[in-house]
Design goal:
Layout (H helix, E strand, L loop, with lengths): L1 H26 L2 H11 L5 H22 L12 H33 L13 H11 L4 H4 L5 H24 L5 E5 L6 H6 L1 E4 L18 E5 L6 E4 L5 E3 L9 E2 L8 H9 L4 E3 L1 H8 L4 E4 L3 E5 L5 E6 L4 E6 L11 E2 L8 E4 L2 E4 L2 H8 L1 E3 L4
Parallel strand pairs: 7-15
Antiparallel strand pairs: 1-2, 1-3, 3-4, 4-5, 5-6, 8-9, 9-10, 10-11, 11-12, 11-15, 13-14
Length: 371
């Protein structure tokens, strides 16, 4: 009876102090302020969501640490009826902040990727919260206070993963054919190694592929499956660009919001460019090719072949180069879709040089839109 009276006295004060400290930590954290500004400007990237979740977890754990100890708790223990009134509301507040951040970032990313689908909010995982409540109330607090550290970070990071699952599921139900690709970092445990592979997404699929243990370096990519050649990393949200969903050779790049020469060229001259199917183009000119990547381009070349297929990352177009053509400048070596020199054209039996716009149209090929 006395214990219950003590609990009723201690919980409101402790909860108020924890929430106040947490609020101050969040509002005065420069990293969080920077991340929130990036999200407001629709510039939040891959690592930003994970950094935001980790920082929120750090603030919450610090608030717990400042006000919870064996000295502040009755008999040095965080009894269940104390834990259950302090931990759920504070963890729920953190969930809401991370969820808001994820939804805003996902909305901007969908827009940038050309996917006109509203970002989905994942529900809070109350089982994780209840598990922490149960575990922290089983022993003297000073022996088990670590539960309000690493497991809190794991919970916060998992919110990002849950939002990726929710959006993949909604895309699936919207008629897309998303796939999940899990890759190791080369230094993984046996459990992660067994999960590596490609999975056709469906609501009933094995959800183990989304799980991540502490210090896990694996990546999980989300392919929208709408015919787009862009792929999204489930955890860090960077976009990839793939030759064909069924091929082993892939290349990746960050879809940054900035303008490169290729994009400007496509916007200025692209209206007159012919369209090609990239898979067919690669099959014709760069079958079983080796892949080289630069900041702006990805090049395919079959060993021993003089032809190089050059894909511009930002302009969404492809060119064909014949390395046998004379001259040191690469621009002089680009040819037409049939592999022929495109600098001149024959009209009425006479040869003349092509204008810049004519040469652009003969040597630049937009990706054919798929339906």
């Amino acid at each position: 009876m006395n214990r219950q009276s003590e609990v009723k006295d201690i919980v409101p004060d402790l909860l108020n102090k924890i929430e106040s400290t947490y609020k101050d930590l969040v509002e005065n954290d420069e990293v969080l302020s920077s991340l929130l500004k990036k999200n407001a400007d629709k510039l939040a990237k891959a690592q930003d969501e994970q950094d935001f979740a980790a920082k929120i977890a750090e603030c919450l754990s610090e608030a717990y640490k400042e006000h919870l100890s064996g000295d502040t708790l009755p008999n040095g223990q965080m009894y269940y009826n104390i834990a259950n009134r302090i931990i759920p509301p504070t963890m729920t507040g953190s969930y809401q902040q991370i969820s808001d951040y994820c939804c805003a970032a996902q909305s901007a990313l969908n827009e940038n990727a050309g996917i006109s689908i509203k970002a989905q909010r994942a529900p809070i995982n109350t089982d994780r919260i209840n598990g922490i409540v149960n575990r922290v109330s089983q022993k003297p607090f000073d022996e088990i206070d670590w539960i309000l550290k690493a497991p809190i970070e794991n919970f916060c990071r998992s919110i990002v993963d849950d939002h990726k699952k929710a959006n993949a599921d909604f895309h699936y139900r919207s008629g897309l054919r998303p796939r999940i690709i899990r890759k190791t970092d080369g230094k993984c445990c046996k459990w992660c190694l067994n999960l590596a592979g490609t999975y056709e997404y469906s609501p009933g699929m094995d959800r183990e592929v989304f799980r991540r243990h502490e210090n896990c370096g694996c990546t999980v990519e989300y392919d929208p499956g709408n015919g787009s050649k862009r792929r999204q990393n489930v955890w860090d949200k960077s976009w990839s660009f793939v030759k064909n969903p069924n091929t082993k050779k892939r290349f990746r790049f960050r879809l940054d919001i900035q303008f490169f020469a290729g994009k400007e060229r496509a916007e200025k001259w692209g209206d007159n460019w012919q369209e090609v199917d990239l898979d067919e183009f690669l099959e014709r000119w760069a079958k079983n090719a080796e892949v080289r990547e630069t900041e702006q381009k990805v090049e395919y070349q079959t060993p021993g072949s003089p032809y190089i297929v050059s894909v511009d990352k930002n302009g969404d177009y492809v060119r064909l180069m014949d390395t046998r053509l004379p001259g040191k400048h690469k621009e002089k070596k680009y040819v037409d879709a049939d592999g022929k020199d495109a600098h001149n054209v024959v009209e009425n039996g006479k040869t003349r040089g092509r204008s810049k716009s004519e040469w652009q149209a003969a040597t630049h090929f937009k990706f054919k839109k798929r339906r």
